Amino acid sequence: MKYFGAVAVLLVLAVSLSAQEMRTWADKSGNKIEAKFVKVSRGYVYLTDASGKSLSVAQRDLSPDDATYVKAQAESGGGAASTGTAAAPAGSKVASKAIKDLFEESLTNTGKTKVSTDTLGGKVVMLYFCGSYLDSCKKATPRLAEFSKALEAKKLPFEVVYVSSDRTEDDLYKYLKENRVSWLTTGWRNEVTRKLKDLHKVTTMPLIVIIGPDGKQVDRFGAAHLGPKAEDDPLANPPELFEKWRKKAGV
């Protein structure tokens, strides 16, 4: 009997896992992303992409096919309807209250899909204050892209959040895609973006501010001089600089 009980449990797990396979999701605007279904809660559908990041999409913004899929998953138990917060990716930490208060629910990825603030949990976070129309940003951004990809390749607990001063929302997302980065952003001309600029007294750009899991600043420097041939490049050794930030942040 115990044997058949174990088989039954395995069959249930198999059904549950099959319901969480990667699939293409689309919203009414045509934006697409590959992700696994996690759950539906309070009008939002929570997903996890291939990199392990938590994403959320308002149910009302789903394509008809995705809305039907979510309904079927919820009814079959493939994703529980819950009143809790979005589940963090496996192995990740939940963001502190300070981080959640700082970013609220503003984070999106380059595909304009909402991302859970828990993605920043237990990580060193680089706030990159910039505007795509600035020549200094055009020089600095490719250098920062190289830096972040070097840390990403080592799977270090690090995220870049782009705090935009772009002229339009389209400029913001176009700029991130052109630079082929997987950064997050606080969006365009919203209260969170204004709050971060005021908090860190941003008067010139580009500006880099490093914060820890508690939301406190651990480093800050201007990036106007960064470029392919920058002298005294503070980003010359990504792992070494990350280790410095990690220790200061207590990560």
Give structural attributes.
five-stranded mixed sheet, single chain, 251 residues, 22% strand, alpha+beta
Largest sheet: 5 strands, antiparallel
Number of helices: 7
How many beta strands in the DSSP annotation? 10
Percent strand: 15-25%
Please state the CA-atom Rg, rounded to the nearest Å: 20 Å
Principal-axis shape: globular
- Span between N and C termini? 48 Å
State the helicity in percent bands. Answer: 25-40%
Low-confidence stretches: 1-19, 80-88
Gist of the model:
The chain is an alpha+beta fold. It has helices at residues 2-18, 64-76, 97-103, 135-153, 169-178, 191-199, 238-249; strands at 23-26, 32-41, 44-49, 54-58, 114-115, 124-130, 158-164, 184-185, 207-211, 217-222. It is globular.
Descriptive report:
It is built from 7 helices and 10 strands. Mean pLDDT is 81; it is low at 1-19 and 80-88. The longest helix is centred in the middle third of the chain and has 19 residues, at 135-153. The protein has helices at 2-18, 64-76, 97-103, 135-153, 169-178, 191-199, 238-249; strands at residues 23-26, 32-41, 44-49, 54-58, 114-115, 124-130, 158-164, 184-185, 207-211, 217-222. Helix content is 35%, strand content 22%. The chain is an alpha+beta fold and 251 residues long. Strands 1-2-3-4-5 form a 5-stranded antiparallel β-sheet. A 5-stranded mixed β-sheet has the order 8-7-6-9-10, sandwiched between helices.
SSE blueprint:
Elements: H1 2-18, E1 23-26, E2 32-41, E3 44-49, E4 54-58, H2 64-76, H3 97-103, E5 114-115, E6 124-130, H4 135-153, E7 158-164, H5 169-178, E8 184-185, H6 191-199, E9 207-211, E10 217-222, H7 238-249
Parallel strand pairs: 6-7, 7-8
Antiparallel strand pairs: 1-2, 2-3, 3-4, 4-5, 6-9, 9-10
